[in-house]
Amino acid sequence: MDKTKVAIKGFIVNNYFIFLVIATVIFAFVLRCFHAKIGLPYLYNWDEPHTASTALKIMKTGDFNPHFFKYGSMMIYSNFVVDVLHYLSLMGHPSTADSYLTTMNEIIINADTGWQWTISHPSFYYWNRILTALLGAGTVFLTYLMGNYVFNKWIGLIAAVFLATLPFHIVQSAWITTDVPAAFFVLAVVLFSILFIRCKKPIYFILSLIFAGISIATKYNAALSVIAPFMALAMVYVQSRESVKTYMWFLVPIIPVIVFFLIMPYALIDLTTFLKHVGYEVHHYKIRGHGNATSVPGWDHFGFQMYQFYSNIGLLNTVLVGIGIFGIFFRPLLIFTLILPGMYILYMSGMKVNFHRNFVQVYPFISLLFAVGIYVLYHVLGIIQKRMLPGKEWLPTISIILITFAFLLPQAYLSLNDAKIIYEAKDTRTKAIDEINALKDVRKLVIAKELMIHAQDLKHLEKPYTVEPVLKIFLRAVDENSLLVLPSNPKSWLKNPKFKKKAEQMRMIISRFENSSIVKKIGNNGATMIDIYSVNPGIILVRDVQR
Predict the structure, then answer these.
(1) Alpha-carbon distance 438 to 50, whole Å?
(2) Within a domain: 383
């Protein structure tokens, strides 16, 4: 028994660092999983249906042409695989479960209703989000490897913990979008390029090109990732010409293109639609812009994105990131590592559309710079200690450990607390069902159709109800025993194009509404636009509507 204990203790002592890395990646995954249920059974992200519902459509129709090329097809097909597995799972669920299937035809998506945010079975979206969360946690692991190969394992671990607990990256890892997956694949490109420089093995060069093709098939602006293997090949050629064969130069464009079309064959088969959609995005980003998310290309856009980086990591972290740039004096390979994200920032700053989510792939490199900043501080403290406090070699180490914990622990705590809040949060429509069930003197409910209350919520409603359009509710006599469930702030309804031709009727409704008795107000969104996409709409429960 004693020998067993000694063996276990020895194993833990000898492998403690591996446990730290594994714990970091698991913690990163848990934080992202907690965020993955946000809003469901309702959608809070405008772009998710483009990927998730397209994947479901492929499963329903058997047509593998996505007919949608504004994004790459990599994540559409990846989510399709997840959907197939989840479909088989739901077919085994009893009818008493919140989500179950008896036939595939029960899956209703936007293509079936014409409403973009239709999700009859939200669990499909949840598991698609878990896939994104997995790639987000995978990015944390790749960040550790990058730090380890460029500096050392401790720098890699600090960078990984920083990214694992960074709120912006956590939130982005909870959506079914292409940004976090693209960041994962781009980082893999850089990582294998670094390994090729260090080891001179062609397999690493080929893998970097393969991941470049995958990243482009995920998000088109990831095409810049090809720069990394090309530069790595040039560096190896300068260092050791015999390690670079002539054919390797031709592989730089060939392998990414082949991989791209293997993942996206319909980009060729349905070339017209592909070019139409890609051309639309080029015009969207370069010429048209996107409403409030538009900047003047160049320094104006660059300054906007720099402020976004600053806002997302905070003042003190920004200072450490700045200090980390001096790490190039300790590891010249850091220069190579930073060229791609630097060029990417400059390239995207030339666009009009300024969505900061396009810069998710830069954050692993920011995390590395944060960790290198810690290293530079350690080096400076070491110099100070030798000159001013000789004989106390332990002081820089203890000091830097305390500094690292002082930076990372509060961020980890806040991220965990936010994750718990998000996990426990409910959409206002779900809250409304709970509030209504708690009322004892309600004989009948009339629910505004425009609220789009999900069938899963209605299933939990314990009182008889009807679902009707707002105009129909107010233009007929309302039973005095009825409770109306309506969007809040009726004056905002006039902004809806649907009601412009019925403005007089709407004003009459508003007048009647304002003299009615509000039983309960749920949520603070006072500008709800009924009958269109709405995030966590304000809801009011009304009775005694004035005639």
Answers:
(1) 38
(2) no
